[in-house]
Amino acid sequence: MIRLRSVSVEIEGRSILKDVTLDLTEQRVGIIGLNGSGKSTFVRLLNGLQLPTEGSVTVDELETKKDSRKVRRKVGFVFQNPENQIVYPIVKEDLAFGLKNLKVDKKKTEERVFATLKKYDLAHLSDRFTHQLSGGEKQMIALMGVMIMDPEYIVFDEPTTLLDLRNTRRLMSVIAGLSQSVLMVTHDLDLLSKFDRVLCFQEGQLVADDRPERVIQQYKTLCDV
Amino acid sequence: MISLYYKADSPLHGLPAGIKLTFLVFLGTTLFLYDSLWFVGLTLIGVLILFAVGQIPVRRVVDQLKPALILLVIIFVAQGLINGWEFGLLVVARFAALILAASLVTLTTLTSQMVAAIETVMSPFSRWISVEKISLSLSLAIRFIPVIAVLTHEVREAQRVRGLEKNLFAVATPVVIRTLKMGDQIAEALDARSFDTETSEDVQKG
Q: If I label A18, which of A79, B49, B112, B124 is the partner at 20 to 30 A Cα–Cα?
């Protein structure tokens, strides 16, 4: 369970998030809000990329301020732009990167890389140069780079923004099949219809927290104003 | 353009990266030890034969030399006029052999193998320097050369629309700013992907 208690974030004297308290226990949680509403800062708190100025964030009893490295092992993060998340020139090398950091031996690493690619029908990309992949393929490889670490939670920060409709559907189908808890920031409200819970942020405050249809309705009202 | 791995099932591809890099250092040294056109010429032919052994297509061999062609011509003419045409030929053949040999190593070696070999060489110094960080820097440099090339192309196109394509400042400023911003995002992604993390055995369960 992810737990936030009285969490506030200030960056360079500017208040980005204000007094957020909640528990996240659902399998699928969506996060929406206007640009600059604090939703990206909120998800960055969940794996310790951003530490709270006040309050605490704990993931399965591990506090991000004290155990950020352990928290990052539990909470995978898929960024909006996969280009910046892929660090090796060849697909199989990139997938092996996280395991290499954890000193997993070479043979096991190769087995896991192959098994992960095969599971998602991407084995044909194994030897491809990462800079030659399409946008959709890059986003899938970025996700595989996270999946191979076997996290318990996966945060997606606007993962479909740079994708066309076909790749959006493909990615969402993969996300739907994940056994991990998923927390996803998105502006595409249709993607959240089957989610268990949606949070809506406005000017750094959590203004709605309920079932998708209710929160989306509130969000649309906010946008009208 | 940086030469990149060419996938094939050849004896050269199977050789450990450390041996190939050692060979490259040895070749680079001996090429400059002997001022014999015969020796350098035979070495160049030997390197070309190794391209065939590595199953590298002729087109890729030409691609490796293309970027250096103008420079080689300039060197040949300058050396020819100053030290004689035979010496000019010797210098050009020497550089061509070296460029092709270095390309052959990168064409037949995965980045990860190269980085692992460099890590091994640097491991005795791990008390004083972070070997992992240096090897990661090398990987990132290779990975992001094409990305920055694309970024520069995008900026140049955007400035062309505004009639500023010949203004170096108008092209360089956005490229530098976007590259720095990208650097921040990559650093964050490395954190998110457990770089510099503690070793743990439980991930090995798979």
A: A79
